Amino acid sequence: MLGELLTAIVTPFRADGSVDLDAFRALASYLVEHGSDGIVVAGTTGESPTLSDDEKLALFEVAVDELRGRATVVAGTGTYDTAHSVHLTEQAHEVGVDGILVVTPYYNKPPQRGIVAHFRAIAEATDKPIVVYNIPGRVVVNIEPETIAELAEIPSVRAVKQAHDDLEQARRIVAETDLDLYAGDDNLVLPFLKLGGVGGICVRSHIAGERMKEMIRLYRAGDAEGAQHINEELIPIFDFDRVAVNPIPVKTALAMLGHEVGGFRLPLVDATDAERDAIREALARVGLRAPTPA
């Protein structure tokens, strides 16, 4: 297991749009000191579609250097091109990451057998644990339970990040495979724990990591009521995606709370004034006070 609570870390940018590796290093340490067992680098929240291969490699290197021995580092290497994904995986492997996150190939909509072939090719490039990232809301294609069971037969495929609220499919992953089940949406962490999941690969753990980690601890200790209480307290920030598409809300919230994360790369854009007001209100509702602009 790569940890119970992993944070899909944002990528900080400087004013000129370049990657701010110093700010990234500082944020990675902050996350591990505040509840995260590890980080996922260059995922959706890290704005991976707009990062070059060299930038991703630099982020992997900094993460491993900063967190080695303290927390796990999972590299996002999946694209819609199998050969490109294999190349990125080989590079991440050489850097020394602890695991590989591979999203379902997007845009070209492969059939289920194509998804299996994609993962088999990537698995030949590394013996690191591979996390299958199933997120049909973004890639359109759902990895069906039967396909996940087939992927589980690949020795290095060890886990699934399931960003899909179909609880029956999640139950089948636990019941029919030996894969670790991670919630890919923050509001699914507790429901997946109840099904036998190990935790979550989360976004709001940037700002509420200690509370999310405590929720997992309480549930595992048999205090389901205490875990449910924390889950309900965090609903205002779980609802961030109703304000704007991820990672706009969480990166905006981080900046409000004093973290140097910079802006966004197009086609993502800054939050509007109305969106910023909604984000600030949500933070206040969970007890995180962001300074009100003069």
Mean pLDDT: 96
Q: Per DSSP, what share of the residues sits in E-state strands of 2 or more residues?
A: 5-15%
The oligomeric state is: single chain
How would you write the strand order of the largest sheet?
1-2-3-4-5-6-7-8
Q: Give the proportion of residues in helices.
A: 40-55%
Span of the ends, CA to CA: 46 Å
User: What's the number of extended β-strand segments?
Assistant: 8
Computed Rg? 18 Å
Secondary-structure element string: EHEHEHEHEHHEHEHEHHHHH
Query: What is the helix tally?
Result: 13
What layout of secondary structure does this protein have?
Layout lengths: L4 E4 L12 H13 L4 E4 L11 H15 L4 E5 L5 H14 L3 E5 L8 H12 L6 E5 L1 H4 L5 H7 L5 E6 L4 H10 L3 E4 L5 H7 L3 E4 L2 H16 L3 H10 L1 H4 L9 H9 L16 H13 L9
Parallel strand pairs: 1-2, 1-8, 2-3, 3-4, 4-5, 5-6, 6-7, 7-8
Helix pairs in contact: 1-2, 2-3, 3-4, 8-9, 9-10, 12-13
Structural features, described:
It is a single chain. 46% of the residues lie in helices and 13% in strands. It has 13 helices and eight strands. The protein has helices at 21-33, 53-67, 82-95, 112-123, 136-139, 145-151, 167-176, 189-195, 205-220, 224-233, 235-238, 248-256, 273-285; strands at 5-8, 38-41, 72-76, 99-103, 130-134, 157-162, 180-183, 199-202. Strand 4, helix 4 and strand 5 form a beta-alpha-beta unit. Helix 3 runs parallel beside helix 4 and helix 8 packs parallel to helix 9 (205-220). The longest helix has 16 residues, at 205-220.
